[in-house]
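Example 4.3 (complexes with small molecules)
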Amino acid sequence: NAGNTAAELEYSAYVVGGFVRDLFLSRSTEDVDIVIEGDGIAFAREFAGRMKARVHYYKKFGTAVITFADGSKIDVASARLEYYQFPAALPTVEMSSIKLDLFRRDFTINTLAVCLNPDKFGLLVDFFSAQRDIKEKTIRVLHSLSFVEDPTRIFRAVRFEQRFGFTIGKMTEGLIKNAVKMEFFRRLSGHRVFGELRQILEEDDPVPAIERLAEFNLLVSLHEALKIDKKTVAALHATREVVSWYDLLFVDKPYMKWMVYLMVLMRGMAQQTTEDLCDRLELPPRHREMADAGRREADTFLHWIQRNPGIKNSELYQRLFGFRVEQMLYVMSVTDSDTVKKHISRYILTLQHVAPLIKGKDLNEIGIAPGPLYSEILRKILYARLDEKVRTREDELE
Ligand code: CTP
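Answer. The structure with cytidine-5'-triphosphate bound is encoded below.
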């Protein structure tokens, strides 16, 4: 047990942060964060050794990650004074190291800690009224410089608020408005902003959080083209429905849910604006490609299919072949036409899995020599199958 290991090394070990918060909220979390009063790396190596787990550590930060055979992980940090730098204005002098560790965190609700040492096992540490704020369903920062230290916390405030159905406290709200007015975001790298935005777009229902970001003028402060009107909100709600529908299919292949929302947010943006926004967010090339060219390709498809509602399956197949799931879900989200939605869902559910029953070797057996003709014939058979002109193997061979 981690507490015994820590005690033998004469350290104190605490479970902290999201894990403890989620216990109070009766939600489950996979991540476990442990803070060691002492040398977290020494603890992690010893504990991993005993548990036959792997350990990676980062000397510079005094942190380690322990990975168990079943794939689960524990993050370990060292609560040691030399790892903290606080603005001089903050009253940090008299704090114990665990208290300091918790003091540098974003919101009160994330400052709960539970001791693991055998002599104090299960002792709940609550220096900053986290339990009260959880009860009152309030997101509060610990001190007024929190967003100066780290402006990405503004996105986190909105994310937690919407995820838990909490409300951002009055003072904290004031600090957010001030931070937006003072353009704290300008000095944030696109990489960090994008990381936060992406986490919001990956939430179960990101729409209320997006509306809240818009309310704080956070989106336009990232890029002036990110204005959210009623039509965008309606499209985002539709996206949520489409994404939920797709998730219920339990398709094994991963896809980028956040990308579908991002494409919907970018709908109608001119190419230059899209490029500017991608620059601001420092999107990596493959994501950029999808948000820009991929979105335009999807718009072209939408335009075409709206004018050709009665198309044959084989035509639909040819048009959608090679499309990414994100592009198809985007089209389903932005169209009002049930016919278009039905076409795409038919492709996703059935058409894309259709293949001829016969193989190359069957063609060989009926005396056709191997060559480029094979794929030509098999393609024709596939199209005939899609259009339900053939049913059995014999039909195909004919
Ligand atoms: N943290 C912070 N400032 C940030 C990011 C994180 O103070 N910009 C702190 C938070 O207090 C949090 C801890 O670091 O408890 C771990 O961060 P993370 O794993 O991102 O937070 P979780 O609360 O576990 O969030 P999630 O449930 O989304 O994973």
